[in-house]
Design the sequence.
């Protein structure tokens, strides 16, 4: 089993919270966006009681930080740009996996159309790497700065991610004679009050006509070829580190204690 | 009988295409690093903006089986002006020329394009990335 956590730290010093998450969930891979804490300081905290975490050195993508419970040689980068790192996970005895981690441009600077256009490029890059590596057992995780229903996430020539495992298992869909491979996006299930836990990962409220209040910008997408190993029931939006709540009294992310984003956790079972 | 409406001669454009300049520089990087780090130019399938011709400049480290997309360019059929789309790290180094809502700088002609390329290749980001790749390739 491999336990993974992604969190946009919002440039806050959250080492203590991260440590508690590591212990509580026995996390194997931490993936961070907007980490301003020095990697050394984070590593010192993670390894305070027992040395178990490794820092994964950066090459080109400096916006994503990774810490793993195994040597970084097992998670080598294969493709990067300034906002995404695609890594080839080659742990001994386990199937090989491609893990893409990204922090997509914010809506403060890019509108939905620009984000959708960039998703088309991103999707193409992922498919190139899958072709190069020779398999499609891929996961894409990160802060997409888009909700699961937005064009870039659902367009066939974008990330083509769907809410249904059954639909995703069809493998791909054809538009104008061109096949587009699916991603499964389990994050759809976390919208609204009927979900267990918070209604999203990011809360935004402003006096304008169109506001969702809760957004799910932090997402994990899974290719059909990896679905048999992806445990949907393990997927959580974390609202606590076990000792401290990451949300305030009204249930929204507590920026004073944690980040303005909530972390997401998922497991791969082999 | 059909009539040929075409002019007798077509004016040949004497400027060098941006993609040709990029390919020359990709080759030069390989020469400079003894092919430990090389580069290639990919034609992108989808548009960054409205430009029909879009190319990415990709740095490669064969020993690491690693690629890094440094920047992209986009232009119309007339080649110039050419837009140079910068990632956010590179963009930070050009901030006084572009506002935060745009992710590109524009070169109006070949001369300006070459000046921008020189600045991009000498930027802290480019030097840092290539330096890291060189160091790690030597250990691989």
Sequence:
């Amino acid at each position: 089993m491999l336990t993974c956590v992604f969190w946009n730290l919002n440039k806050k010093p959250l080492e203590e919270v991260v440590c508690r998450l590591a212990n509580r969930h026995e996390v194997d891979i931490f993936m961070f966006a907007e980490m301003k804490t020095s990697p050394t300081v984070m590593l010192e905290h993670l390894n305070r009681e027992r040395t178990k975490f490794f820092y994964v050195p950066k090459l080109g993508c400096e916006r994503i930080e990774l810490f793993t419970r195994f040597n970084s040689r097992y998670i080598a980068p294969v493709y990067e740009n300034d906002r995404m790192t695609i890594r080839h996970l080659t742990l001994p005895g386990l199937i090989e996996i491609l893990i893409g981690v990204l922090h997509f441009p914010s809506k403060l600077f890019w509108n939905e159309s620009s984000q959708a256009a960039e998703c088309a490029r991103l999707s193409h890059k992922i498919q190139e790497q899958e072709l190069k590596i020779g398999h499609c057992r891929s996961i894409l995780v990160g802060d997409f700065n888009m909700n699961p229903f937005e064009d870039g996430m659902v367009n066939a020539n974008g990330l083509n991610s769907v809410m249904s495992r059954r639909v995703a298992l069809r493998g791909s869909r054809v538009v104008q004679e061109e096949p587009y491979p699916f991603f499964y996006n389990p994050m759809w299930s976390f919208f609204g009050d009927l979900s267990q836990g918070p209604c999203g990962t990011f809360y935004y409220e402003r006096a304008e006509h169109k506001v969702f209040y809760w957004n799910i910008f932090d997402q994990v997408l899974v290719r059909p070829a990896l679905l048999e190993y992806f445990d949907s029931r393990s997927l959580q939006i974390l609202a606590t580190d076990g000792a401290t709540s990451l949300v305030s009294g009204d249930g929204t992310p507590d920026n004073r204690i944690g980040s303005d984003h909530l972390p997401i956790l998922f497991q791969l079972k082999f | 009988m059909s009539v040929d409406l075409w002019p007798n001669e077509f004016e040949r454009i004497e400027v060098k295409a941006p993609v040709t300049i990029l390919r020359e520089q990709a080759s030069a990087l390989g020469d400079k690093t003894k092919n430990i780090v090389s580069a290639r130019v990919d034609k992108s399938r989808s548009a960054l903006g409205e430009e029909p011709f879009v190319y990415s400049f990709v740095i490669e480290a064969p020993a690491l089986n690693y690629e890094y997309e440094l920047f992209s360019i986009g232009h119309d059929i007339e080649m110039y002006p050419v837009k140079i789309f910068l990632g956010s790290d590179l963009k930070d180094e050009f901030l006084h020329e572009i506002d935060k809502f745009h992710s590109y700088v524009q070169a109006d002609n070949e001369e300006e394009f070459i000046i921008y390329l020189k600045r991009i290749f000498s930027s802290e980001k480019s030097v840092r990335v290539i330096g890291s790749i060189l160091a790690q390739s030597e250990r691989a």
Observations:
- The longest strand of chain A covers residues 230-237.
- The interface with chain B takes residues 57-63, 76-83, 105, 109, 117-118, 120-121, 124-125, 157 of chain A (CB under 8 Å).
